[in-house]
Amino acid sequence: MVVSVRRSPRCNISWAISCVSHPGVKRCSQILPRHVRDYIPHAIRRAREVQRGPGAGDEVRPTAHSWLVDLRVFFSDLCAWATEPDSPFKRFAPRTIPVTRHTLLGYGFEKARERTRARITATVLDLEREMPKIRAFALQHWKAAVAAPKLATTRRYPWSDEVDTFWDWALLELLVQSGLRIEEASELTTFDILKRKMPDSRNLLSPAHQAVEV
Predict the structure, then answer these.
(1) How many domains does the chain have?
(2) Model confidence at 157, in pLDDT bands (50, 70, 90)?
(3) How far apart are CA 109 and CA 65, in angstroms?
(4) Same domain (yes/no): 171, 136
């Protein structure tokens, strides 16, 4: 229950809105599907108010859908746990789950998700077109640091510019050539990266590259 509540901060908002719109609602256990349906337009309006970025108009935002999914998970967990023997949540659970997947249909969330997918696809295609320039810039920046006098460093210790720019380039190459997500790459150690193999069994980084760090 603690996990579900922490993951669902919007549940408190939904309960407050229900109490304001329906004065008879005094406890969580009294919330009904119609109370949640009254909250959905408010969530959509609130999502428009907090939207960011250019071109953000009056369209339904996936942000509101995320809030409502959290709300659905909260009540689903609460009602499920209330059915367990001697459950301490029994007195808090509504007599029926007030929000389900079908509750969220017909508000435009499907089109909002389609727009999000299209926007992500366009961003990925733009990144693919620019990736050769980004890789070339990282490599050039590293080579410039290698050629620069070792005392001319912008850090507090010698060789740091060369090492830092090397790892900027190496991490970029790791992501591009391995397909790892940034979360996965962040968990790798130095030697995981240095010893990583390409599909053709070659090392991701050549011995000359490894010598920079090793």
Answers:
(1) 2
(2) low
(3) 6
(4) yes
